[in-house]
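Below is how a single chain appears once it has passed through the pipeline. First comes the sequence as given, then the structure the pipeline wrote out for it. We keep one example in the README because the format questions we get most often are answered faster by looking than by reading.
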Amino acid sequence: MPAREGIGFIGSMIVDVVSEVLEAGNLVYSDGGRYLDGADRESERIEYATGGMALNNAINLAKMRVSYPVLAAGKIGSDDNGRRIRESLRAYGLSDDFCAETPEHPTSVTQVLYVRDSSGTVNRTFRHFFGAMGAFGPVDIPWDALADLRIVM
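Resulting structure:
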């Protein structure tokens, strides 16, 4: 029997939606392009990042250029955020074959809000929407792909 090698990460694959720092008492329009001009639109900038235990750990190992196989498995929606996750995996040379995709649920999202309080301290607040990962279960795990791995988390 050949020696097992590699690591598989099974679990959360999400997209973080990160907004600008909000200032207490400032009004932020949901459609700033219609109502605000120039620098006033700064608070309208949104950034997207991928995250979650399975995705982050697999990508971190890929960044370290480990010599063994790395696999990430989770559940994503058939939407733009699901495509962001697939693109992120492929950008680091990882397979996106183990992303169970569903049209029934959107990709899981964490909204990250930065709020500056009256003392000037910036605090982060998180709002998580379970989406596709909330529907993830044993039927979504690629059991055959895990058989030759040394470690599965």
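The first helix runs from residue 32 to 35.

See the next section for the split statistics.
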